[in-house]
Design goal:
It is a single chain. By secondary structure, this protein is an alpha+beta fold. It folds into two domains: 82 residues, Phosphorylase Kinase, domain 1 (2-Layer Sandwich); 170 residues, Transferase(Phosphotransferase) domain 1 (Transferase(Phosphotransferase), domain 1). The protein is built from nine helices and nine strands. The strands form two sheets. A six-stranded antiparallel sheet has the order 1-2-3-4-6-5, with no helix packed on it. Strands 7-8-9 form a three-stranded antiparallel sheet. Strand 8 and strand 9 form a beta hairpin. Helix 6 packs across helix 8. It is globular and about 60 Å long. The chain starts with 15 loop residues before the first strand and ends with a helix.
Length: 277
């Protein structure tokens, strides 16, 4: 492998890359492009992530190998596993199971309260498992949450997120708009992942994204106040507190409190719906 970048250019539809035949492009970011492909040996469709040529260097590959080894023990129903990661025709190719859509795409359609809680719980369970293994995701956002059949959620890009953001930005990790203030200053922690999950929760329930400077109450508050139990609103407020010391210490603690409040909040919302019917 050369020290500089390797094979360049976007992959084309019907192009073969080893045993994979490219079927369509799913998306592209600053670090890599993602494609739907057919595994011509196994006869199944997969998602493949191919970093852009300028980032496929020995330094990036070294970081990538380190992160993959760190995140290898993260086996969980709600974590997207890496099926394969290898160099094919001078390209780094990372292969994943193919989902139906991202949470970003799913949120363009109506999501019931019950479904929103189901999605949030799965994100929390995935992140809690990672935190129990001392792994910080660093880039929890709707584009990295993959939706499978039956509303099953799998959190993607463990390890890859850290490498890609470090490589592209040359410093702190994360995506602007989803990351905690301390993470933007290059000091991510478990509490930073808590913050990102809090933002997603708020969007799922209110239909609005909290925006910097994340002043309280964020947009959508009046809508939530009318149907969501006050204790759950306080739960979300603590998750997105600007001061990391006032947030939950990690996703394990956040999940435990979420589960205590979940049914009470759903019953409260159903009761409010009946009263207004």
């Amino acid at each position: 492998m050369p020290n500089g970048a390797v094979a360049s250019g976007e992959l084309k539809i019907r192009q073969k890359l080893g045993k994979y035949r490219i079927e369509r492009k799913l998306g592209s970011g600053g670090f890599a492009s993602v494609y739907q492909a057919m595994d011509t040996v196994q006869g199944i469709r997969v998602a493949i992530k191919v970093p852009h040529a300028q980032y496929t260097t020995e330094a990036v590959l070294t970081d990538f190998r380190k992160e993959i080894r760190t995140t290898a023990p993260l086996e969980h129903d709600n974590i997207l596993p890496i099926k394969d990661a290898s160099i094919i025709e001078d390209r780094l190719v990372v292969v994943f199971p193919l989902g139906d859509e991202t949470l970003q795409q799913r949120m363009t359609r109506r999501i019931s309260l019950e479904s929103a809680f189901e999605i949030a719980e799965q994100i929390l369970r995935a992140t809690a498992l990672a935190h129990s293994h001392h792994v910080i995701h660093c880039d929890i956002k709707p584009e990295n949450v993959i939706v499978f059949a039956g509303n099953r959620i799998r959190l993607a890009d463990f390890g890859i997120a850290k490498v890609s953001q470090k490589t592209v930005q040359g410093g702190g990790t994360g995506t602007i708009g989803y990351m905690a203030p301390e993470q933007a200053m290059g000091k991510p922690s478990f509490r930073s992942d808590v913050f990102s999950i809090g933002l997603i929760l708020w969007r799922l329930l209110s239909g609005h994204w909290p925006e910097w400077p994340f002043a309280w109450p964020p947009s959508g508050y009046n809508r939530l106040r009318g149907r969501i139990h006050p204790e759950f609103i306080d739960f979300m407020r603590r998750a997105i507190d600007l001061n990391p010391r006032r947030r939950y210490r990690d996703a394990e603690q956040m999940l435990a409190i979420f589960l205590k409040l979940k049914q009470r909040t759903i019953r409260h919302a159903r009761s409010r719906r009946r009263q207004s019917a």
